[in-house]
User: Fold these one by one.
Assistant:
Number 1:
Amino acid sequence: MSAEETHHSADVAARVERRWATIFVIVIVMMAALAAFAGIHRATMPQPRVETTDPSRIHLSGEFVESNLGSVLEADGNVTVRAIGQQYSFTPACIVVPADTPITMRATSADVVHGILIQGTNINTMLVPGYVSEQLMRFTRIGDYLMPCQEFCSFGHEGMWGKVKVIDKSEFANRAKAGGRLSCVGE
Ligand code: CUA
């Protein structure tokens, strides 16, 4: 190879390297911009604050005792859903919520890591023992949505399914009049 050819190959290599470096800088800037956008809009986000629970005591006292699980209509018209995951079910196994309403789901795990995924939506969060997972959601379509556990949680994982039932807003308000926590278990 002549000196001139060697020089030429070095030029080509430098040009290719610069091109790839530019592409990766663009990719990194785009990812940072997307993360910032998603975080600002809370569409997908690391939680803004960390709340902890004691998984060995959640059944006994505090926010996640059984009588407090389910859906509740708040005074401002929003709905809060509280749920727990445990090997191998969700409580409540059927979550009832109204359509066209801001919903805050607060959930945790009583044992190992589980996941909540609501099919046909972008709702997908992990339930980690010791922490509260909070997820904002809103449904526009009435109907039943499957809610499989989406984190492998040992041998019963594939049988761990829940359901979300989205009902008409006024029907939900009617049911809520009776007070207590709503669910659709057994419906
Ligand atoms: Cu719970 Cu997989």
Note: Residues 85, 88, 114, 149, 151-153, 157, 160 surround dinuclear copper ion (CB under 6 Å).
Number 2:
Amino acid sequence: MPSISRLTADIPRSGIRAIMERAMEIPDAIRLEVGEPMFPTPPHIVEAAVEAARAGYTRYTANAGMSSLREAVALRLRREYAVDLPTERICISVGGVGAIATALRVATELGDEVLIPDPGWPTYEMTVAGVGALSRRYPLYPANGFLPLVGDLDRLVGPKTRAIIINSPSNPLGTVLPPQAVRELVAWASRRDLFIIADEVYDSIVFDGAHATFLAQDGYDGLIVVFAVSKTYAMTGWRIGYAVAPLEVSAQMAKMQEASVACAPGVSQKAAEAALRGPQDCVHSMCLAYRRNRDAAMEILDRHGIRYQRPSGAFYLWVEAGCPGSKAFADNLLSTRGVAVAPGETFGPAGRQYVRVSLASPEAALREGVNRLAEAIQADRRLQQ
Ligand code: PLP
């Protein structure tokens, strides 16, 4: 057999997928490991897709997406963030992940370095490696409220650093960057002449305060902001995201999509358009349900005296398991107590003693799962004493 690319073979598999596949084999397992909304896609969106399929939206579209969807995105950004953007700066992608991958392809040369968060969504590392660049992790830790510090970033920048990925609201931490931090980070990236890839796919899921978008700093010409309909409208399987970038970057991203996906699926684009143009009360009610789940889970952990990072956005709870290795802990939790959580170490070395719980799960299952998790952490603590 011809040899498989080293670049691909060396990329580690996502630890979330690994535990998910184990959990799928265990009947009655409580599944709190994946970031998948517990809601179905709202019916008016599904109807729009059915109609679109019947009406013949079954062909290739422009690389950058249908102009009607790009207009709907511009409308949404005006409505939510009061920013006025020409549609040429909007590139429709296959999920938020597609936009991040294409942005990295446009922003980096082979062997360049990209700063990614530790802990951070595992796909960043895979995607950076996939374009032949190298990840350098910047630390997010309790003492700085899990927010990036310019001083820490400065120590990591070298001659090959080209870009930084910043995620707010954060998966797995649930932190939401305040406007001041957004301004500071953009000023810092501009001084260093770096691209910022701001991953804001959870921008509609914020519990305390408001989301501060990087688009507010749109004057910086190294800024690429990524959104998706996946989490906002419970549309993970439709695979539609979008990036807002400077004109030249957006054009290059659209061009490069030809070589990977050609374009996002037409029927899904029409569904996303219906989501963005249609009633928004579904977004609000889903967000309220995630907040109720957050409060229920925090109450259980408080009762057991277990520490966690209080999430202000996204739908995850970052729980201090206190174990020496979170992968072994999560495997054991699934085998012995039937609860699947994501091991923290798959989000980076900083996650070794943590696990991530998805709050986008039915409330009864979440309560039962978090109770069992808390009991397991306490049992481990007793053993260590
Ligand atoms: N960014 C973060 C932080 C995520 O957690 C996810 C999905 O879990 C994505 C991007 C990708 O979103 P999509 O499903 O739209 O590709």
Note: The pocket of pyridoxal-5'-phosphate is lined by residues 35, 95-97, 121, 167, 171, 199, 201, 228, 230, 236, 241 (CB under 6 Å).
